[in-house]
Amino acid sequence: MFFAGLFAIYFTLRSTSPELWADRTELLNVTFAAVNTAILVASSFTCQMGVFAAEDLQPYRIAKGQVNAAGRRRLFGWGMVEWFWLTFALGAIFVSGQVWEYAQLVAEGLPISADSYASAFYITTGFHALHVTGGLIAFILVIGRAYAVKNFGHKEATSSIVVSYYWHFVDVVWVALFLVIYFLK
């Protein structure tokens, strides 16, 4: 519901101030944002690979060429922990990219206080970045839990699945934001 409200801000702004929208969207680096988006989308795939490993109760790396409990070969031989660390890294790169983009826009004369478009842009993308950061913290907690338990079981696997649901939701929201912010001119 919260993000629906943020989308409403964008659509209202676009309909009431088309000239402001046109001027400000010219400052956006669509290529950089597309690469950053691809990084976040890739993190959904790595997250899901971690979930598959967790479902097979394989929190850690198994020897290359070994098969998991279901008789399937593991990609790279990785377990949940390795996939979640990779997902964490990709998510951190995405948030760092957002920070870099903010710095570039401020340098180009678009601080949050510039106008209603700037406020909507920073609030919308900033709240999304906060949600991604929350997901990164959740990944650290799940990875820590995998190291802390004696036997990685159904309860720990369920935690990784729940975190993946959140992560996939955050990714889907970003894809929608990306299309609205960067392509809806």
TrEMBL record:
Where would you find this protein in the cell?
Cell membrane
**Record keyword Plastid present:** no
- Which UniProt keywords are present, listed alphabetically? Cell membrane, Membrane, Transmembrane, Transmembrane helix
Leading EC class: translocase
- EC number(s) in its UniProt entry? 7.1.1.9
Q: So where does this one cross the membrane?
A: 32-54, 75-100, 120-144, 165-184
Which Gene3D superfamilies does UniProt cross-reference here? Cytochrome c oxidase, subunit III, four-helix bundle (1.20.120.80)
Q: How does it sit in the membrane?
A: Multi-pass membrane protein
UniProt key word Transmembrane helix: yes
**Which PROSITE patterns does the UniProt record give?**
COX3
What InterPro entries does this protein map onto? Cyt_c/ubiquinol_Oxase_su3, Cyt_c_oxidase-like_su3, Cyt_c_oxidase_su3-like_sf, Cyt_c_oxidase_su3_a-hlx
Query: SUPFAM superfamilies, alphabetically?
Result: Cytochrome c oxidase subunit III-like
Q: Give residue ranges for domain Heme-copper oxidase subunit III family profile.
A: 1-185
Principal location class: membrane
Family of this protein:
Belongs to the cytochrome c oxidase subunit 3 family.
UniProt cross-references to PANTHER family, sorted A to Z: CYTOCHROME BO(3) UBIQUINOL OXIDASE SUBUNIT 3 (PTHR11403:SF2), CYTOCHROME C OXIDASE SUBUNIT III (PTHR11403)
Please give the name of this protein.
cytochrome-c oxidase
This chain's source organism reads Microbacterium bandirmense
